[in-house]
Queue: 2 jobs
Job 1
Amino acid sequence: MRTSKGGQSALLLLDVVQILRREKVDYAVIGAFALTVHGVVRATTDVDALLFTTPGRLAKLETPFRRAGFNVEVRIAEADDPVSGMLVLRDDLHNRVDLLGGLRHLDPGVLSRTLEVEFRDETLRIIGREDFIAMKCFAGSPQDLLDARSAYHAAPGPIDLDLLRTVSRRFGRTAADRLEEVLAG
């Protein structure tokens, strides 16, 4: 692993992505790391990524991560949970990467809108701005809504408001209403 001390979850992500590529699992980095790419730096102790896979395939990923030396926690979702499961990956230095096994109502085109960003000689797939904002409106915590506002206001160029509203509506009325509050504020 590339990590040498705590506080290096972004480096741990590089090891995670290497395994995801080998296992042929598509992903998009989300959360605070993605927010940084979208122009706003926010402190975090972990990195989050969304996987494009089935719950069964997610569970099978435990094995290659354990073989690579990761501490792996498998979280099985409840029937009504919008996240279909999660793998929490840690190293012995307390660096952490959370892999979400899917998100209910996610727009199927999200993968085609990811950004490819170079980080330490690796290419990472980062969720696109409109999808990032919509997901944060869906999650809905005060921090999520602050992240959505920050990403919206930090946009270096135009945001596709039609796309943003469309992908937000897929998450339901509450997410769409939260988006309108973000756009107004």
Job 2
Amino acid sequence: MSIDTIAVLLLAGLLALIVILYKRGNRLIAPILAALVAGPVCYFCVGILVPRITGEGRFFSVPFGGFHVGDLDILFSVLAWSLASWALFRFIAVLRRRGSPLR
């Protein structure tokens, strides 16, 4: 089995766990786990999208690192995207709990 197949299987298993936890009413752990999935996915999607738009042709680390991609740049960027994802999921959960008209 290749590393890509293992990563996809782990991601699918984690997403299934998130759905199960959310359905069981665990509104604290499910958004945290979802943010741990959404953060890296958003980071890599934006990191590939920015060079395609600008025509640079190589990975761009957002918000830390830019074209210089080091270990700490990747770590801080993924943490920033995970935190932003968690804040979005938390905001959505609070709106749903309050019965907001935005639903």
